[in-house]
Amino acid sequence: MKNIVALCLLLGFAQTVWAGGFAYTIRPTELKAKPFSDAETLASLPSQSKVEVLKRQASWTQVKSATFTGWVKMLSLQLESNAQNKRGDNGLRSLFNVASTGRSGSTVTTGVRGLSEEQLKNAQPDLQALQAAKRYAVSSKDAQRFAAQGKLHAQSVDYLQGIQP
Amino acid sequence: MRTNRTILLVWNELKMNTVRAEPVEAQESIHISTSSMRTDSWLKRAGSILCLLGFALPAAAFDFGSVDWKKAAETVQKVQKANADISEPQEITLGEGIASNLLGAAPLLNNPAAQQYVNRVGRWLALQTERPDLPWQFGVLDDNDVNAFSAPGGYVFITKGLLAQMHSEAELAGVLAHEISHVLRKHQLQAIKKSARTELLADLANDAIKTNGADPKFSKLVSAGTEVYARGLDKNDEYEADRMGVVIAARAGYDPYGLPAVLQTLQSLNPGDSSVALMFKTHPALADRLSLLDQEMTDQFAEQENQPDLAPRFYKALGAGKK
Ligand SMILES: [Zn+2]
Fold first, then answer.
1. Which chain B residue has the Cα nearest residue A83?
2. DSSP 3-state assignment of A154?
3. B250/A contact by beta carbon, under 8 A
4. Closest CB from A18, A78, A142 relative to B267
5. Taking residues B188-192, what's their average pLDDT?
6. Helix axes of B88-105 and A127-134: crossing angle, nearest 10 degrees
7. Minimal-distance CA residue of chain B relative to A74
8. How far apart are CA B117 and CA B64, in angstroms?
9. Does the distance separating the beta carbons of A156 and B137 come in below 8 Å?
10. Contact assessment for residue B266 and residue B286, using Cβ atoms and an 8 Å cutoff
11. Does CATH place domain A11-85 in 3.30.70.250?
12. N or C end of chain B, less CB within 10 A?
């Protein structure tokens, strides 16, 4: 995984690589040759087809089915649940010392600090930490410079109409 | 008669601010208050409105004789004022109190590069919104839980546990933009209003709480504000933050599918793990959130399909891939 990340950095790919994960189609889905709606359809996958996930590009996910490699709409997939969370391993977990707790959700959390329901209810203010956090705030000028470095261009997009769930 | 006038006054206030549906019929029933059936239905409706505003009226209060309508009217007016009159400085002060409580619950991650990076992404996103000038402040919490929080006035926190589930700057942007949307729409303030501490919020609006000293009322309000995170926001507020979040990320020039991609990752996590317990408990089902985004993100986003996700910058800024 680390090598793949390094390779991406080297080549400057703007695609998110997910290695080794599997997913199921949650509805009948067309497997396209390219990540466009009007691209050639390679196959029609029925609901609940198992595919290997390769990478994501905007609303499209590249997958490998039994016979083809192609693209499906990202949201036509549900990722296979994976207790070991292989797919989520982006190299940051070890970097940040994120522990795989393995604790069951029903375990009573002990100790004063933490973000469980009980701990939030009993939280005490830490004003020093707030001051420390403020030191990292950035100005709008700094943010604009940062956006320009990333070649991010502000767009005009309207808020979406909600649909009733 | 006097009581009736007060009720009418309260009702008109409610009609204007709270319920737009069926005011005419309800107003009629006040005038024909001798008809017990209609009175009953009006009382039920009034009662449910009061409950909506966060009052726990005892059953006995529905007995006409024992209701102190004058007091009820005053309280309703006070709360109505709180709805309208929490000023921006008051909102920021309350948010600051809540933020310091969140930092009391989980410390800041000791990683200046990560903190600065998340602030830059967040500030750039906030600049694309209707409240660009709030004192926006972002932070990474040193906690294994997978979660994110925002507080009134522009405080946004994300745990390192959630950050470690992401794969690009666009994914980070999607999550921050969701949290920013809660601040924009004042969802936390609305949740506090629905809590038992409604009156404290009204006191804040009415300048009856000192925010610069050690006013116990203020710390009670801040506690009530922090408890909101244990209980969660309204489901519809979460859906709204999702559909606003993808738009804000798109406005900022990112691949707008970062947020759904993170939600899809979270869906694959073991729901029995304690690190996701609170996040799962306080949010609508991920399948529902994804299905709504799928339906809502239509052709409008075709133009943004090729916007960058800046995965390389994400890994570089967080120190991955250096070794
Ligand atoms: Zn939310």
1. B270
2. coil
3. yes
4. A78
5. 92
6. 110
7. B261
8. 60
9. no
10. yes
11. no
12. N
User: In the prediction, which pLDDT does B64 show?
Assistant: 47
Q: What is the DSSP pairing of strand A50-57 with strand A16-25?
A: antiparallel
Q: Name the residue ranges covered by the structural domains of chain A.
A: 11-85
Burial class (CB in 10 A: 0-12, 13-18, 19+), B267: middle
Task: Provide the pLDDT for residue B216.
Answer: 86
Beta-carbon separation of B265 and A88 below 8 A: yes
Distance CA A23, CA A44 (A): 16
B209 pLDDT band (50/70/90 cuts)? confident
> DSSP secondary structure string, B75-91?
HHHHHHHHHHH--HHHH
Amino acid at site A107: T
Compute, in angstroms, the gap from residue B240 CA to the centroid of ligand 1.
9
Q: What is the mean pLDDT of chain A?
A: 82
ipTM: 0.84
Q: How many CB atoms lie within 10 A of CB B100?
A: 23
Residue B163: both structure tokens together = 């950050």
Closest chain B residue to A157 measured between Cα atoms?
A: B251
CB pairs < 8 Å spanning A and B: 299
pTM as predicted = 0.79
Q: Which of B164, B267, B277 sits opposite A90 (nearest CB)?
A: B164
CB-based contact A90 B272, cutoff 8 Å: no
What is the number of alpha carbons within 13 Å of residue B22 lying toward its C-beta? Answer: 7
pLDDT in tens, A74-106: 999 999 886 444 444 667 877 787 866 555 544
The residues, any chain, with a CB within 8 Å of residue A84's CB and separated by 6 or more, are none
Residue B51 pLDDT greater than 50, yes or no: no
d(CA B287, CA B190): 25
One-letter amino acid for residue B261 of the chain: A
When mean pLDDT is compared over A59-73, B169-183, B197-211, the highest value belongs to: B169-183
